[in-house]
Design brief:
Helices cover about 45% and strands about 15% of the residues. By secondary structure, it is α/β, with parallel strands linked by helices. Adenosine monophosphate binds near residues 32, 40, 44 and 268.
């Protein structure tokens, strides 16, 4: 069955076929690691995960690069303001390398919680400075770049077409838009390739233009080229990347190699919150931890993402996320019921569902349609192991870790455990006794709790309490 994907470059859905053999070479713009990634960012990575999984389902192998931007992303995508990393480092009174290491770790922890597959190659900008310098030198040689007092800039007037990705008209935009007036720039939309470091900039490297650092757009072009070659299959990012970041990546690559680097450019629409923009000032840039505090698992957020097509806006509310949590639990329960089912279903029926599912995901990753088929199977009155296996097959694309349905449900039961006031009081009393090293009293309270049906476990993070009677009843 043909896989069709929407290409921002041609503004239409096209049949997908890798440029070379069976391997899909793909680049995804990754996080700038100056802060916690929020659920909006994770919508972009859930999309990336779905795309990976659908490509694999179609029998392709992957060589997928995702960058970690740990230098050079200025406050505005159009090269204005300060380097986000340096600003965060100053605010937190740390070194920018420490900031990068800290938020990169948390980013991958959260990617794991969302069961998002890790791209084959993770490329940190600061580890590819030499490749980036080569790229700028080539642009200089080819006559596409020039030096100003601030750095090295790309001259967009040297291109036959700019922009090519966004539908915008530069003349109109220049007349109306807020573009920084820089007398030294040849054209208002020329952008920085390489930035001369101010004295207090910590991340900087030797270059023919003094101590300096790469611009964000250049980083992606150089790392993509290094691992995937001058032309590869797919480039992904959020819709915010269309007018500036990806437009500039294309410009740079054309200046360096004469080619648009990727055949397909795919962009995921934004997540909104309560019908509006997510922003720090509104306090609605929620992290997965904030959701978890409200008993919404990362995987429930992933399922929530499947309620809209990736090319449409998705509106987040806690109410709808709680519904997704309930839906995820229902899916788990249905899977478990089917897995114990003894009924026999005709193979053609299973095959039909499979085909419908493939048709949906192969139509530009239509996840809402695919979920409709998942639910049809989950809700079958006839309980059959064949349906359970089919759901596991679907889960290769959904990535909801359905195989561990039982463990997730049990974990939730534990967390949901609401303790009566007198039990909380006893637990508090025991905590105090332990602080005073009154072991006899601590043990006495433990026994009392046990008699009331609560087990206690001391862990390195504190105390864990579980309802013993309930377990026995269940068992
Ligand atoms: P950043 O770390 O700011 O470079 O962003 C990482 C990724 O998240 C990029 O692909 C952005 O396009 C994407 N992104 C940022 N905000 C949102 C949002 N509200 N909804 C969806 N994607 C977003
Ligand atoms: Zn990028």
């Amino acid at each position: 069955m043909t896989l069709r994907l929407y290409n921002t470059l041609t503004r239409k859905k096209e049949n997908f076929q890798p440029l070379k053999g069976n391997e899909v070479r793909m680049y995804s713009c990754g996080p700038t690691v100056y802060s916690y990634a929020h659920i909006g960012n994770f919508r972009a990575y859930v999309f990336m995960d779905t795309l990976r999984r659908v490509l694999k389902m179609n029998g392709y192998t992957l060589k997928h690069v995702m960058n970690i931007t740990d230098v050079g992303h200025l406050e505005s995508d159009a090269d204005e303001g300060e380097d986000k990393m340096e600003k965060a480092a100053r605010k937190e009174n740390k070194n920018p390398y420490e900031i990068a290491a800290f938020y990169t770790d948390i980013f991958f922890r959260d990617m794991g919680r969302l069961n998002i597959e890790r791209p084959e190659i993770i490329a940190k900008a600061t580890e590819h400075i030499a490749d980036m310098l080569d790229f700028v030198k080539k642009l200089m040689e080819n006559g596409y770049a020039y030096e100003t007092s601030k750095g090295i800039y790309f001259d967009i007037s040297k291109l036959d077409h700019y922009p090519v990705l966004s539908n915008r008209n530069l003349e109109e935009q220049i007349a109306g838009a807020r573009v920084e007036v820089d007398e030294e720039k040849r054209n208002p939309y020329d952008f920085a390739l390489w930035i001369k470091a101010p004295k207090n900039h910590i991340m900087k490297w030797d270059s023919p233009w003094g101590l300096s650092y790469p611009g964000w757009h250049l980083e992606c072009s150089a790392m993509g080229r290094k691992y995937l070659g001058d032309e590869f299959d797919i480039h992904t990012g959020g819709v915010d990347h269309i007018p500036t970041h990806h437009e500039n990546e294309i410009a740079q690559s054309k200046g360096c190699t004469g080619k648009i680097p990727a055949k397909f450019w795919m962009h995921v629409e934004f997540l909104q919150v309560d019908g509006g923009k997510m922003s720090k000032s509104l306090g609605n840039t929620y992290t997965l931890d904030v959701l978890q505090e409200k008993h919404i698992e990362p995987l429930a957020y992933k399922l929530f993402c499947y309620t809209a097509h990736y090319r449409t806006k998705l509106n987040f509310t806690f109410e709808s996320a709680i519904s997704s949590q309930k839906a995820l639990n229902r899916l788990r329960e249905s899977y478990l019921l089917h897995s114990q089912g003894k009924e026999k279903v005709k193979e053609e029926e299973i095959e039909q569902y499979k085909q419908k599912f493939i048709e949906a995901v192969n139509d530009d990753l239509n996840m809402p349609l695919a979920m409709g088929i998942v639910w049809e199977v989950a809700r079958q009155k006839q309980k059959s192991e064949q349906f359970a296996n089919l759901l596991l097959e679907f889960d290769k694309v959904l990535g909801l870790d359905l195989e561990k349905a039982k463990q997730y449900l049990e974990q939730q039961e534990k967390e949901k455990l609401e303790l009566p006031a007198e039990i909380i009081e006893l637990v508090e009393k025991r905590k105090k006794a332990r602080e005073k090293k009154d072991w006899a009293e601590s043990d006495r309270i433990r026994e009392e709790l046990q008699q009331r049906g609560y087990g206690l476990k001391d862990t390195k993070d504190g105390m864990e309490i579980e309802l013993l009677q309930k377990k026995e009843n269940e068992g």
